[in-house]
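Hi support team,

I submitted a single chain yesterday and got back a structure, but I'm not sure I'm reading the token output correctly. Could someone confirm the output below corresponds to the sequence I sent? I've pasted both exactly as they appear in my results page.

Thanks,
R.
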Amino acid sequence: MPADRPRVAHDWLDHDAGPVVRPYAMTQGRVAPTDGEFDLVAFVVATADGDAGAGHLQPEHHAIVAASWEPISVVELASALDLSIGVIRVLLGDLRSAGLISLYEPPAASQPHDVDVLKAVVNGLRAL
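Hi R., thanks for writing in. Yes, this is the structure output for that exact sequence:
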């Protein structure tokens, strides 16, 4: 039986954290979603099984689909999967263009702020 080879130390392996992959490697160098921006508090809901487009999906795509069977916000999704917001946005854009998820933005996010309400809040804070 041959002797066990000594393990070679790799720069890309952090023994405490496991393999380290840079965010741009997960998004293939992209920094923005292909089909526009969306709010961080938008809800993500899976519309189809992630196996439908399994040929071109990365493991992170599958994890997003699996985590979004119940509505979950973009921020919560990033936290649950331990991925940065930038990476999540790009991957969500991929999934949305493939028709595997739907994004629902709250009405307040799509409407401009009411100036009168903001003035009332500022005046109330000054009164304290």
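A quick pointer for reading it: The chain has a mean pLDDT of 78. Let us know if anything else looks off.

Best,
Support desk
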